[in-house]
Amino acid sequence: MKAYVIALSVAALLVLAGCNRQPSQEVNTQPATTSAPSTTVRPNEIEINKDNDTLMKPVKKPINVKLKRDFKGEHSWDIVGTDVKEIIKINRELQKEFPN
């Protein structure tokens, strides 16, 4: 008997909640008339805009540094990369950090 009362009250609540809904607003599906010509985009086409700045910048390749320490406590390193200026810059920084 309790289950019957609970089910009946839940059903009444759902019916009353559905009656309080406001009608949805209608959307105008007609195209607006403008003086400028409109451009249509097909769903299968993707428009891509690229900046000239991003096209001109080359991708930097990483420079690998292998730091070594011998039994005397002295440090040495191997630097591998393609950018010579960057390799020299890193070498100078390592020489300042680890003087022999």
What secondary-structure arrangement, pairings included, does this model have?
Blueprint: H1 2-19, H2 52-56, E1 64-69, E2 75-80, H3 84-97
Antiparallel strand pairs: 1-2
Task: Provide an overview of this structure.
The chain has helices at residues 2-19, 52-56, 84-97; strands at residues 64-69, 75-80. By secondary structure, the chain is of the alpha+beta class. The chain has a domain at 58-100. The protein has a two-stranded antiparallel sheet. A hairpin with a 5-residue loop joins strand 1 and strand 2. The longest helix has 18 residues, at 2-19. The mean pLDDT is 76.
Q: Tell me the overall shape.
A: elongated
H/E order of the elements?
HHEEH
Q: In terms of structural class, how would the helical and strand content be classed?
A: alpha+beta
Strand content: 5-15%
* H/I helix tally: 3
Main sheet attributes: strand count, strand direction, barrel closure: 2 strands, antiparallel
The largest beta-sheet arranges its strands as 1-2
Radius of gyration: 36 Å
Helical percentage: 25-40%
| Low-pLDDT ranges | none
Task: Average the pLDDT over all residues and give the rounded result.
Answer: 76
Task: State the total count of DSSP E strands.
Answer: 2
End-to-end distance, in Å?
A: 92 Å
